[in-house]
Amino acid sequence: MSTNTAGLNPAHRLLWLMQLASPALPVGGFSYSEGLEAAVEHSLVTDEHSAQLWLIDQLYLVQARSELPVVAQAMMAWRTHDKAALQRLNQWVIQTRETFEMRLQTEQMGRSLLIWLRNHQAADESDMQWCESLPPTWPLVFALALNTHAVDTREGLLTCAFGWAENMVQAAIKSVPLGQLSGQRMLAALSAEIPLAVEQALSIPDNHQQSFTPRLAILSARHETQYSRLFRS
User: Fold this and answer.
1) pLDDT at 8
2) Inter-residue contact 31 to 175 (CB < 8 Å)
3) What mean pLDDT, rounded, does the chain reach?
């Protein structure tokens, strides 16, 4: 994999991270609530306080134990051209998506980010072609995007977690619904927890990430037949 020479400049690297974390990144993250809309429908989330607690739980139970460890391992595998490890991680992500919606999200966002990377000529073309054959999942392609600018693993996970948090706060604002100030308070609360969640993710040994959120899986399955909905998950 060829590393973009702009990645050697700290200012460019910071701006690259900000761009990857932005909800304006055209990968469709805004269209998914990851079960939150179903939680609102079933009155498990009803206000700012319950939405904040829900997202903090999801940060530690899903992001810190599953998504972020995969991103960390995939970053290392991209650096060493370990395609076997990348394929194993990608398959693990696909196999642990417990509903159609969850699988749709990781594959659709992964493909969209790959298109974005190609448009920016940011990643090696052979790496992107190899990704397309998998099909690629979000954590795998996000790790590739981070590595194009020589990003430190901890910085990469902080970026990934904050991007997730911002999208989820926006989902809460729309689905509960809540005001923008409530959203900012929730984002600040999540930001305070993200560094600890990242440290937990980094402490997980390779191939020891886990995915066990049965309540979230049930809500996701219910959402697939929910009568009225704003989001794809």
Assistant:
1) 62
2) no
3) 92
